[in-house]
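Hey team,

Sharing the S-adenosyl-L-methionine-dependent methyltransferase run so nobody has to redo it. Sequence (451 residues) first:
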Amino acid sequence: MSNRAKIESLLAMANSAAQEAMALYEKAGGDVPSLDSTGPHPLDDAIDTVALKSAIRTLEGACGQICTTLAPPSHTAINLVQVYDYACVRVVLRENITNILIDYPNGIHVNELSKIIKVDSKKLARVMRLLSTRGCFREVDTDVFANNRLSLILHSENPVRHMVSLHVEACAKGAGVFYETLKEPEHAYSYDPAHAPVMYAIKPQGIEGTFFDWMRLDDSRRVSYHRSMRGLNGIMGSLAVLTNFPFEKYSTVVDVGGGIGAFSLPLAKTHKNVKITIHDLPEALVQARDIWAKDCPEAVQEGRVEFAELNFFEQVPVKGKDIYYVGHRQLRNIIHDWPDNEAALILRNVRQALGPNSRVLVHDYVLRQLSRKQAEVEASTLGAVVAPEPLLPNFGVGNMRSYQQDMTMLILHNAKERTLQDSLELATAAGLKLEKVWDLAEACVLEFMAA
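Structure output:
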């Protein structure tokens, strides 16, 4: 295939994916959203967005590959680093600008906004204009800004806002010293969670231990962190597991490291046939009980949920249940929070609880291979999805968040996201065998049985 033919093929993929996405929006709500949309689309809150995320994965991957191929290298290189979106979003979050704009549906002049938040109006205008250019906020008239569908995500009551805050605060601190930790003798070759870059960054403040130790030092930061984990439902489309995995065939589910119930609460509402056991540390279960009493009291009253203390490094979960969902407050697995030794220990403890027909579901990002040969082997033998040529086999930037998330794990926990091969090696060491890969377009669910 000639280089021009590759671009033409990518253009066709992009067009087809965009048409599919528009059709899904129209089917769900009657219209396609725009940058000027001032409220959420019905599809935004859908439980199962796998079809939409699959279309966007191809659309982003094809468009990104076209731009990188056709643009001068210097153009693309500077675009990799000249990124200040996070700094501007931090201003918006710290000053609750989205909340303020709720009272000004037709927009507010930046001079008036600056008086409310006590930030220089000329600097503030530059922040707002950059974000509006990104499609976050609208400049409805010269220096007059209003909310839109995207900026509403940053409202203080939206859990996704708390995940955004985690990145512009904690992750930004760790990213700023990442290179230094690669050279500093104590940190350079260590995978100790206490040596994560973010902990290196805040050590001058006298703070030691791990990221989770740091979270526990401040109640407001801890609460925001828990809320951010619930926000990942929307970011990842994680709740699609509830409609794509056949939970209706099973009667018992153990949520290992379940926290406040980001996975198990929706499970209880969607599959009332299932009895749920939530395992976590005592302090997490205190908050979980309160949330369940408010959000799903019928499950508590009917005995469809029980709470049991568990340290997953030291204890074996309740034995003989159907499904063991290895989850965390993030509605994804706890495995990515830990280096290989600790991760294997968690899985070995889960393995000891399995009955002959039990399943272990590990829900997380799976890093895709850029080697088409390896990707096609994984596709043919394990059911992993590989992108068609000439798109990069891992969908390119259409799957970029998984690689960015890998860096997030490194910066916050000195841990990592794993390739499918990494996960297989870890599972084998714990006495598990892979049965199936459930591709949910962003994350995957890896289904294991006892080996």
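The chain has a mean pLDDT of 92.

Ping me if you want the raw files.
A.
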